[in-house]
Specification:
With 343 residues, the chain is an alpha/beta fold. It folds into three domains: 36 residues, no CATH class; 229 residues, Aspartate Aminotransferase, domain 2, CATH 3.40.640; 57 residues, Aspartate Aminotransferase, domain 1, CATH 3.90.1150. It has a seven-stranded mixed sheet with strand order 3-9-8-7-6-4-5, with helices on both faces. A two-stranded antiparallel sheet has the order 1-2. Strand 6, helix 8 and strand 7 form a beta-alpha-beta unit. The radius of gyration is 23 Å and the shape is globular.
Amino acid sequence: MSALDFRARLAALAEQDLLRTRAVLDAPCGPHAEVDGQRLLSFAGNDYLGLAAHPEVVEALREGAARWGVGAGASHLVSGHQRPHEELEQAFARFTGLPRALFFSTGYMANLAVLPALAGRGDTVIADRLNHASLVDAALLSRATVRRVPHVDLTAFERALASADGRKVVVVDGVFSMDGDLAPLPGLLALCERHDALLVVDDAHGFGVLGAQGRGVLSHFGLASPRIVYVGTLGKAAGVAGAFVAGDADAIEWLMQTGRSYRYTTAAPPALACALQASLRLIEVGDALALSAALRRRGLWVPAIRPPTVPAGSARLRISLSAAHTGTDLDALCSALQEASDD
């Protein structure tokens, strides 16, 4: 077999209908796409909140590039960690309610850093069979013993934990991208506490969508624990690019010190961090804006007040009452608020 038999290998892929082609789009990311001159209604992307072309995010990117240039010039641990990166990490820690966060250029790179930093030879990684490819590759790179268990099967996870050696790390997607189901995180965390294991959650498809103000799958389940290492991807609901890892302060410090895909790559452009700060602000006020819009559709004008008018994380509806309002008006307001909250 020749080392140069690429044509034959490609032909074999084609015979199995596994040969992929790239579509070249002539329109920005959004609900409509243009491919080969054809205008299409698109249901193909991960821009869940429509932020990829949001004017506030675009303007933040433009202003960030004007202020900080288009490149960081070095890795974070040399001289590439600039003020927008630092502010973004602090913002993610506040937003998720976790002690500390670390910013990565891509979600794939984040996962490739996390598992090898948490487990090695003599340790055990216990992974759901439907985990994303980046988690599969990261588990192999860790050089730990990898046990892949049936999808979301808590009994199988418990058996694997009970017989595992060394440090134990359970790793799952928060939302599984192909089936759309959620990992049974409350049950998994209970197992990790019982068997002294860490729980790594890749919330690529839950961050920005699930939980209060889009805080993700941990918020959705109401979970908090120093055993959890949380990965959030920023090229989907956040609409930009990159990822962050958040968790216990010591765990994140260890990841920063030992994560190879963090240490040995140039930091993402600081302008992207500026854009992501704008995106995060929009995600955070999304519930208030959606509720205000729902009331508007019902014939009530109740403005949403958001930062910087109010502190970050405290966006709200401002309901101003007048002596001129009638009891019927107030009844209508209460009914509309109930209906809109139930939507």
